[in-house]
Design goal:
Rossmann fold; 2 domains; four-stranded parallel sheet
Length: 340
Amino acid sequence: MMASAKRGIILMNLGSPDSPEVNDVKRYLDEFLMDGRVIDIPYLLRVLLVKGFIIPKRAANSAHAYSTIWTKAGSPLVEFTRQLQQAVQQNIDEPVEIAMRYGNPNPEEAYEKLLQKMPGMTEVILLPLYPHYAMSSYETAVEAMKEVHQKKKYSFKLTTIDPYYNNADYINALAESMRPYLQQDYDKLLFSYHGIPERHIRKSDTTKGHCLSSANCCEIDSEAHKYCYRHQIRVTTKLVTQQLGIPEDKYEIAFQSRLNKEWLKPFTDVRLQELPKEGVKKLLIVCPAFVSDCLETLEEIAMRGKEDFIHAGGESYEMIPCLNIHPIWVSAITKWIKAL
């Protein structure tokens, strides 16, 4: 670190339980699901739903799912984020820390670690590790960091990097990380993005009338696109497939991790069972909403998704890893930070 440096960097990801034990998973689910930007219903109803129904019903199953991907280093998501921190730190002089929206290390801990390294810090650069805007991911992460910043009355400035779903450096990193896997014979490439409720799309619509108003609303230019997750994931898909030269009939988009039928469609779990019946026997699947492999990619897609596809008649199935610490991804982040 240069003596003249006054900035600190925070890489922020979703988070993870401290362990796959049921009590730790319960604590994590409580923090996660009680977020009003995740389950956006009145507080008392959210308490009844989360604490009275969802956690008692899901905690044990979630704990088992986490146990199937847990490593000696702990949570894959937290470990990959730490590795990314270390890789970026090698390229810049300013201190880099990580924060999780839920679980540990929390936002305050990240701020305090930076202040310990740089008592005279005047600015923190926040990079949410979410390429696309959604109120339940990017927005809640940024707002959580702002809330702690205001509550603690820190004197340093907080600067946030915008969603980068269409940024050329991100697109290049994603495309090049995928390229080696596309050399094999495959019938289709499935882009599986994390699902969100359709009401979140409408809620984030600044025009209050554009999003989901027609089948092709994402292709009609609108100010709403700045906050539209559905539009942004389509742009990412289009740009990546163009760079890789993948024809339109060779790929499709689906949405995973749904909780009910009112989420964005089509659903990944349904498509995985339908595709073999449509002649797709060799499938590649990628999850660009995540930059770090986690429960939703390693367990839901790589494990359960494969079982569903093969059981439905598929012959080969491979999940392309997330960006994690791909050198081109590390270079992209480094470039963004240095440009600010």
